[in-house]
Structure to design on (201 residues):
């Protein structure tokens, strides 16, 4: 039942958005009773955080299965395509973004999501550092991770305005070309990029 409620919350978050999402809508989608819902998730925040944790676990399992099947070192283009196809291109990713945006004005939700995200970010960073690994003469792992996240997240959010999926497919391939150039050892370029990434004084 807990899994059904989490899945229903994610599905309806994607369909109706955060503002129109109610416990009644989630319970109906899960074919559950309010009693069952309150037993597992006493509040709406509890349920949304539980659904978010479930989504992150799904992403982690997908990542682990992918990593286990790949020879080392993993090619950057292979990993970026995996990220897009299995995380960012899914409707649930936009649902996750809706939750993060809603947390801006909900202190309780914000604190709970931050705690959940902190663990996920450690796992995500370990992949870049231990498996992908960027040459020392290029951008730092953290900077490149953030750059990649901004690109793929932007593609995901803008997808509903595209004529069809081919738009983002082309953007993904273009980003892969750029990303590979960015991490190619080039000390002059690396210095310029790192300086550009530094906060203004």
């Amino acid at each position: 039942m807990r899994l059904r409620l989490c899945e229903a919350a994610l599905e309806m978050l994607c369909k109706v958005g955060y503002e129109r999402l109610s416990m009644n809508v989630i319970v109906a989608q899960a074919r559950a009773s309010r009693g069952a819902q309150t037993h597992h998730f006493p509040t709406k925040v509890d349920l949304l955080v539980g659904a978010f944790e479930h989504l992150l676990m799904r992403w982690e399992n997908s990542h682990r299965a992918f990593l286990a099947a790949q020879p080392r070192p993993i090619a950057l283009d292979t990993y970026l395509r995996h990220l897009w196809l299995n995380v960012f291109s899914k409707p649930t990713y936009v649902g996750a973004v809706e939750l993060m945006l809603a947390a801006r004005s909900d202190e309780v939700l914000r604190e709970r999501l931050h705690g959940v995200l902190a663990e996920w970010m450690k796992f995500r960073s370990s992949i870049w550092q231990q498996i992908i690994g960027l040459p020392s003469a290029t951008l730092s792992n953290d900077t490149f991770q953030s750059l990649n996240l901004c690109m793929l997240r932007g593609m995901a959010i803008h997808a509903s305005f595209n004529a069809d999926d081919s738009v983002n497919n082309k953007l993904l391939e273009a980003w892969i070309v750029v990303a590979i150039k960015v991490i190619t050892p080039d000390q002059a370029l690396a210095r310029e990029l790192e300086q550009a990434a530094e906060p203004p004084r």
Notes: DSSP finds ten helices and no strands in the chain. The chain has a mean pLDDT of 87.
